[in-house]
Amino acid sequence: MFKRKSLILLVLMLSLTLAIVGCGGNNQSADNSAPKKDIAEKQNQVDQSKDKVSNTDKLDQAPELKKLVEAGKLPPLEERLPENPMVVKPENEIGKYGGTIYLTQFSANSLGIPGHVNSEAPLTFNRDFNNLKTIGNFVKDWEFANKGKKLTLHLRKGIKWSDGEPLTVHDFMFWFEDIMQNKDISPIFPAWLKPGGEPMKVNAADDYTLEFKFAAPYYGFIDWINGYWYRGMDFFVPAHYLKKYHIKYNPNADKLAKKEGFGSWVQLFNNRNSAIFTETKPVGRPRLSAWVVKKVTPTGRIYERNPYYWKVDTEGNQLPYIDRIKTVITPDAETRKLKVLAGNIDYISSFLSLKDYPTLKKNEESGGYNAWIGKSLWASRVTFSFQQQYVGDKVMADILSNKKFRQALSLAINRKEIKDLVFMGQGTARQLTFTPGTVPVFKEEWANSYAQFKPEKAKQMLDKIGLVDKNGDGWRDRPDGKTLLLNVTANSSRALSVDTAQLVRDYWESIGVKINLKSVAEATLWQRERNGRTQVITKFMTGSRPPWDQYTPTNLTHYKWGNWLAYYNPFEEKVRDIPEDANAVKPPQEIIDWYTWGQKLPHVSGEKKKELLTKIGDKVAEQILSIGTVGMAGHVGVSNKGLGNVRKVGDNPSVAATKNAYMEQFYWKDEERRNE
């Protein structure tokens, strides 16, 4: 059970640790000998596709690749790079070639961090979290036309897959026509490819130009191809490699599948494609990433540099600097921590617990690493989300859907104490709202809405809505006379959620609301929520933007009017025929409008986008569908002391997490590690 005294002691230990090592801030330089830079300046090193190599006559490559060129086993560098390589500005300095970096891998069948690193989306994000932008990647430029109904993508001409075959728009056409529209592989054509209710149309204008036509304006399509929540990480696939496993191109694909030990050609095709970024790509599958898997071992995987990688540093040196990656399987959090403490993991910026930070700091010298807090985009690490379609108890359902009830409970929370005790003083005490820098408009008042610690005010608000102690037992009663018992379910898969929930239980009980606190595993928690069986659950909000179910009403069943919204078309403002057994109740107009703003957001741009975001932000601040606690709290990371150009970022899925570390520009400062 959570012990407040233990937490206070832990915080004092952490404070002493931070004071001794002077590491309280985010994104400190890993190289203590390098001149210190302002964090904002470092994060403003935006890798725009317009960046230029300082001297194109000095293109260079790794020594091992030079030897292969000299031996006639590999084409010259100029023939392997595209006409306009992507230029990556090193975090601190130009690196040096060589060495092996050790990363963690979840299991034999799930990659985790190596999946982030070894995937490439058509577009990507810059490094300035205070002004986050989508920038070019292997798609160099893009433009919308016809009021957002037409999008044109321009590939970098001359990019090659890791086996030397050219990347063209036909790789995308294969994905779109032969994978997404093949019912054996993809039984359901996804809604995100049907803006306005109609499948988008795609045309290959030439080998390097793709034209998209949408039935409705679709500016939000960019968030499906820029790595946002890992989207687009395998948007283009190596058609030349996969066609031999596809029945359309190989009539003997079924025979091949059975020969390989698979039940059908679809199973073999899916195995060779491995479409999800965390899936373990088979050896031999061409990639666009900096490293390519070459060997699978009982303890992990070995990746070697991609000789056709299409990114260079500002002096024309082909990336990556580091020769290879070796992964170490760490199936659980404890194993992961022990491997890190022993110095077996060279870089990790996700999946370490904040509670372990003092221990990690204490063992830096023995482990040969630096422990740090990576910058976080998470709007609230722990939120308390209120069920809006609670089943089985009409009185309780009405209480949960009353915004005054939620506002009062929000005012009863001591966020500063949560920040100090649970988050070790990291982050910002705030209400749930957008993360500054991730949206083009932000009001500080949103973060402050009902976020002050005012328990007496909370009591008065509960009194006004009739939730008072009628029998003098110390607990507030419901309108029907029963004791107001609020079921709160914490996510046991996330320790911070449990610790925060135990504090919040105390706050709410101090204003007379009796709490029944339980904790269950994450997967079970989501299922119970969808079934309308929860009252309040702990969730989280990353750097995500609306539409998201904690920011706008949703057509999911756990929202009060979700069954009705499922039949509502916000673009035509019409309702389809609703079956009698749908249990659909029409919402008030303000809820319909709120839902409509969220649904329209991906289809607008410029001032209209700001207008809708402002309306949504105002509504979230008023309604408090989910109560926020502490945001931007940072994530624990560790990097080997010998690594250079380390980018200290947290577990931020809204920018594809470790992908935003730009690991291709990491290098070994130690000659011994470079020669490993």
Lay out the secondary structure:
Layout: H1 4-21, H2 39-43, H3 63-70, H4 77-80, E1 86-87, E2 100-105, H5 113-117, E3 123-125, E4 134-136, E5 139-145, E6 150-155, H6 169-179, E7 201-206, E8 209-213, H7 239-242, H8 253-259, H9 265-273, E9 291-297, E10 300-305, E11 311-312, E12 324-329, H10 333-341, E13 347-348, H11 357-362, H12 364-367, E14 369-374, E15 380-386, H13 394-400, H14 403-411, H15 415-421, E16 428-429, H16 444-448, H17 455-464, E17 485-491, H18 495-510, E18 514-520, H19 522-530, E19 536-541, H20 562-565, E20 568-569, E21 574-575, H21 589-600, H22 606-623, E22 626-627, E23 630-631, E24 635-640, E25 643-644, E26 667-668, H23 671-674
Parallel strand pairs: 1-11, 2-12, 17-18, 17-19
Antiparallel strand pairs: 3-4, 5-6, 6-8, 7-8, 9-10, 10-12, 13-24, 14-24, 15-19, 15-22, 16-23, 20-21, 25-26
Helix pairs in contact: 8-9, 14-17, 21-22
CATH architecture of the largest domain: 3-Layer(aba) Sandwich
What is the class of the largest domain in the CATH system?
Alpha Beta
The count of domains is 3
- How much helical structure, as a percent, in the residues? 25-40%
- What oligomeric assembly is this protein in? single chain
Instruction: Tally the beta strands.
Output: 26
Return the structural class.
Answer: alpha+beta
Largest sheet: 5 strands, mixed
Cα distance spanning the termini: 46 Å
Strand content: 15-25%
Shape: globular
Query: Helical segment tally?
Result: 23
What value does the average pLDDT take?
Answer: 89
The third-level CATH topology of the largest domain is D-Maltodextrin-Binding Protein, domain 2
Strand order of the largest sheet: 18-17-19-15-22
Compute the CA-based radius of gyration.
Answer: 26 Å
GO molecular function, one term: peptide transmembrane transporter activity
Pfam family, one: SBP_bac_5
Keywords: Signal
GO cellular component, one term: periplasmic space
